[in-house]
Amino acid sequence: LSLQFFKGNCQRELTLRKLTKENCKFNPCLNGGTCIPGKVSCVCTPGWMGRYCHRHCRNVYKSCERWALEDKCEQVRTQTNFFDINCAVSCQQCIPDPKHKFFTVLSNIPVPPTLEPLQFMVGRWYSVASKGFRYPTDMYLNSYEELLDIVPAEVPMFGTPSFNFTSICRSGNDTRVVRGFLTLRANSFPIEVAVLSSSNEGLTMVELGTMSGHIVTLNISYMQVHPSLDSSILPLGATRRFRRNGQFLEMIVAKLFPHNKITQYKKMFRKTQSYPL
Asked: Which residues pair with 265 in a beta bridge?
């Protein structure tokens, strides 16, 4: 699979508004950060970075040290904040704190700032279904368990970063595995989201949609089916929606079949592992 749907300049970042007195009145800064009117972000304590000091101080790209030596941080600072937020350590925008109490539990790969809007979906999730309803094809038996893993991926040198997206469903000897990518189009409004995936059933899909108010809605826009797969079990179209529901990740699915038959169901996933920023 190739992420060619959301092309763009990886060195563009969304312009941030300056903090106002009204903003600072409620102190949006986290982890001991200080809100100063006129600044574009909070002043963070050692170990933290980001507009609201919500991210651990770390580089996102492995090329950061080389870029800093090439003076990229200073040369293009007036044109883009890409290097400051993606190479904060190398560009001396924050101070790492090795004594930080969470330092040893950080994921090996940080979530790129561009993908922060999808952070609510990131993690390893688990669900048990009492019926065989599954996306996009149903299971043979009436109950199954699903492991959904959305984990940060190595950032590419060029192009849009993405999350690795894996779904594993098991019921007896019936195991369905879907692997792919979850990404978004930077600076789009509403935010455009895509999932590109391939499964051991012989099914390749592209799902396109939008994110609004921390709700991601995806529609199947392309489906390639292997000849060995019984196409009669496939829906004519399908939509699924992800949102946080308390401590759970909720997925609501609607599938359209011939003769206008519609199947709808909801699944609740419980988080079993987090991938910190």
From this structure: 253
Is the alpha carbon torsion for 120, 102, 161, 149 positive or negative? negative
Q: How many Cβ atoms are within 10 Å of 132's Cβ, its own excluded?
A: 16
CATH code given to domain 115-273: 2.40.128.20
d(CA 71, CA 228): 55
Domain ranges of the chain: 1-106, 115-273
- What does the pLDDT look like over 194-241, one tens digit per residue? 999 999 999 999 999 999 989 999 999 988 888 888 777 889 999 999
**Predicted confidence band of residue 3 (pLDDT cuts 50, 70, 90):** very low
pTM for the full model? 0.84
What one-letter code names the amino acid at 106?
Answer: L
Say yes or no: domain 1-106 is CATH 2.10.25.10. Answer: yes
The distance in angstroms from the start CA to the end CA of the chain is 26
Element holding 152 (H helix, E strand)? strand 144-152
Which of 6-10, 126-130, 215-219 is least confident? 6-10
